[in-house]
Design brief:
By secondary structure, the protein is α/β, with parallel strands linked by helices. It is built from 13 helices and 13 strands. The structure holds L-homoserine. L-homoserine binds next to helix 8.
Length: about 325
Amino acid sequence: MGEVTLGLFGFGNVGRAVARVLLEKGREFEERYGLKFNVVGVADTSALIWDPEGLDLREVLEVKERFGRLSEWRNDYEVYELPPGEAVAEINADLVVDVTNDREAHTWHLRALESGKGVITSNKPPLAFHYAEIIEAAEKRGLPYLFEATVMAGTPIIGLLRETLLGDRVESIEAVLNGTTTYILSRMEEGLGFEEALKEAQKLGIAERDPSGDILGIDAGYKATILHCLAFYPITFDEISRRGIDEITSEDVRKARENGKTLRLVAKVEEGRVSVEPLEVPRSSPLAVSSTQNAAVIKTDLLGELVIRGAGAGLKETASGVVSDIIKAALGIV
Ligand code: HSE
């Protein structure tokens, strides 16, 4: 049995969903992969709980759910107020898992790699702004840097482009990569106003904490940037063109409907060119997804057209991507 130690950074909804999967499927992973995961550190924005011997995840979840903050911990584990940059270097983890929304997380991802730790992340800005630097740092040290959950949650578009379509040359990707905007546009088609539909999406936990990132196309833009980096070459989010759904009116939605089409926030990724904008798509198009589904049409020289569709948001759906990456990295380590 190989034991792999983990440091979990971010203990909001996604972090807790990842912890629950590790708890509930621990035995299954031991049997299927011969892997035992030992979480030695868990951090939220208030504190880092760290025990080099391993934490009882059930207890950590209980404290967070009861008190809302890990700094309320009163048991025998050490509670630190280390910033993530120091914490990742200090803790005895093989893998650092970032499920935060920290825009500056690339600094501590690099620090983790420098201190010999692999990184798994669902956090988009580090890749959307610093892809080349991070991947180079990981490759130089032969460490895993995995990010399946950054695009389409656990629906494996990253693995497809990074590990599967190795002989193909990607020609273009067209995709719907944001569930919040799909949800709002669909509800507007059903007669709701923009604000009402947004409130619903927030209530369902689909929208980001600050939904402007979804509405203005920033979230989809981050994802499209990451896809460009994988399919072609590294660029940054600043190089893409982007228009959100903030100016879409009920009239626009109605017009699309009259044309037999539906409005979706569509990302187009071609070599050297990335755009995100609301477009009318035919109802029969694979991009006419509903609810929190995402879809991508990938065109390659050998395969022609390939469609990948599945959950693009949600807690266990995002945990699926993060945990798959943890297992992938662990299988490489052990
Ligand atoms: N807020 C995102 C969405 C989910 O609406 O698709 C996380 O990427």
